[in-house]
Amino acid sequence: MNVSVINKKGIDIGLTLGSELHSIEEVREDSPIILVMKSGIKVELKAQFLEEKSGTLESYGPSPEILVSGKIFDDSGAILKSFEEEALTVRLEEIVNITYSQNTQLVEVRVKPYLK
User: Fold this and answer.
1) Burial 67-86 (b: 16+ CB within 10 A, else e)
2) pTM given for the model
């Protein structure tokens, strides 16, 4: 899974200090992906294939849809945004953005699942 994290500060005053982290992660169904930026922003993601219920013989292999859930933490460990209860459904090779924005800070997590 390709994961990008972008953290911007000072967006309310027109002065933007930004940092980016790009990573390619191998996903295991029971193990979270944890990315930590130098600024202290931490992103924890989990992904799993969506169970298909079609039961047809034409369907084989993993589902083309992935459930992505996780949390975004600030530098003190407080949760900025959680999307665990409402996991996102993403198709393979599709890009999804998860955004947190408040006051002076913007955190954007971009996820693109793919198969090796």
Assistant:
1) bbbbbbbbeeeeebbebeee
2) 0.84
